[in-house]
Amino acid sequence: MDIFNRSNRKTDNDLFSDLMFGTRKAEADNQEGESSIDYMKLMENVETLMGLYGQYKPVIEKLNFSPMIEKFLKKE
Q: What are the sequence ranges of the domains in the chain?
């Protein structure tokens, strides 16, 4: 078995290499195309999240999660 033989190298149907390393064709197409971000939907989601935070802010402050958060952020 010759591992350096050109016939053993990646072909177009090599699913393992595509899974592990991605495909170059898809990366090139994504970079050349326009941005696919829907900014209106993004802003709607941000508005929804901020509204929910505003509703639950008193509950969050009442529960006082700060000691628990500091425990995880503390470097030991």
A: 11-73
